[in-house]
C-alpha cells in the first residue's frame, strides 16, 4: 500500500464552488425572472453571486458581484426586504440565500396588483373614449332580470365562460339544484374559478361539504372574507351578474346583467381588491417546512407582546425589514392577521 493513506469523510474539506458554476444561460434566465418580479439589476447581481458562493462573507459576495460597499448596501438591502437573503449575524459577516417560495409569492402578488391597477386604468380610459364617441347612443349597458328568468340566465352565462369566472358567494341562495355539478364541469373544461366566500357561506348547513370542498378539490381557487358587499359573478371580461344587495336577493329576486362599461370596470376592481384581502381556503393546511431560528425568535418576541421597535433592535434589522419578514411568515402560514399567524404558528409547533 506504500505511502497511500485513505482519506476519511470527516477529513474532506468543502470549499465554496468557484463563480460560474451556474451555466451562463441559467444565470440569464434567473436574472430575467427576478427583474420581472421587480428586483433591481444590482440586487440581481448580488443574488446570483450568493447562489455561487454562499454561505460566504458578504465582502466576498460583493467582490464576486463587482461592487463596492456604497453600492452593495442598497442592493443587498433590497434582497433582505424581499425575503430572498439572510441578514448578517452580529460579529460575523456570513450570508446566504433564503428559501424563496414565500418571498416569490409576495413579489408576484405585488406585481399582479400593479398589473391589475394598470388594466383598470387602461380600461377606464377606453370607457371614457367610448362614452365620448357614442354619446348617449349604443346598447343597453345594464339589463334587469327578475323572477323565474334568473335561473336559466345564470346557467346560460356560466356555460359561456371561456377563461375565468370571478365570484362573491354569500347566502341567501337562489335555488339551482345543479349549481355544484355545473361548477365542477366548468373546472373540468379548464376554466379558472376564483371565489371569495363570506364567512356565512361556510356556516350554511351542508354547503361546505356538499358544495365548497368538492369545488376546491377540483381546482377552484377559494378565499374567505368576513363578508362580501354584493352577490357577484363576473364571466371572463364580458359581463357581470350582480344583485342589488345581499338582502334583496331573498326579497325581490332581482339580478342585473352589466355589460363592459365604467360600472363593469368598478365591479372587477371591487372583486380584485376583496380577493387580495381575503384569507386563502385550502381545506387541511399542509405543514410548513422547518422554521429558521431567527424567525422562531421573531415569533417568540411577537407572542410575548414586545413592540416592533424593540424586536427590530434585538434582532438587528430595520423596521421595514421586520415588517417584510412578518409578511413572509404570514404568507407561509396562510394568515391574514398577526393573531391568526400566532395561532397557526402554535398549531405547527413553531412556538
List the helices and strands and how they pair.
Blueprint (H helix, E strand, L loop, with lengths): L23 H13 L4 H13 L2 E2 H8 L3 H14 L11 E2 L5 H34 L7 E5 L3 H10 L4 E6 L9 H10 L3 E7 H5 L3 H11 L3 E5 L6 E4 L3 E5 L4 H4 L2 E5 L3 H16 L1 E3 L11 H11 L4 H8 L3 H15 L4 H10 L4
Helix pairs in contact: 1-2, 2-3, 2-4, 5-11, 5-14, 7-9, 14-15
How would you describe the overall organization of this protein?
The protein has 351 residues and is of the alpha+beta class. It is 52% helix and 13% strand. The protein has 15 helices and 10 strands. The strands form 2 sheets. Strands 3-9-8-7-4-5-6-10 form an 8-stranded mixed β-sheet, sandwiched between helices. A two-stranded antiparallel sheet has the order 1-2. The chain is elongated, with a radius of gyration of 26 Å.
Low-confidence stretches: 1-20, 248-252
Which whole number gives the mean pLDDT? 77
**Roughly what fraction of the amino acids lie in strands?**
5-15%
Biggest sheet: strand arrangement: 3-9-8-7-4-5-6-10
Tally of individual helices: 15
Biggest sheet record: 8 strands, mixed
Q: Give the helices and strands as they follow along the chain.
A: HHEHHEHEHEHEHHEEEHEHEHHHH
Helix content: 40-55%
Total E-strand runs: 10
Shape: elongated
Q: What is the radius of gyration computed over CA atoms, rounded to a whole number of angstroms?
A: 26 Å
Structural class: alpha+beta
Terminus-to-terminus distance: 56 Å
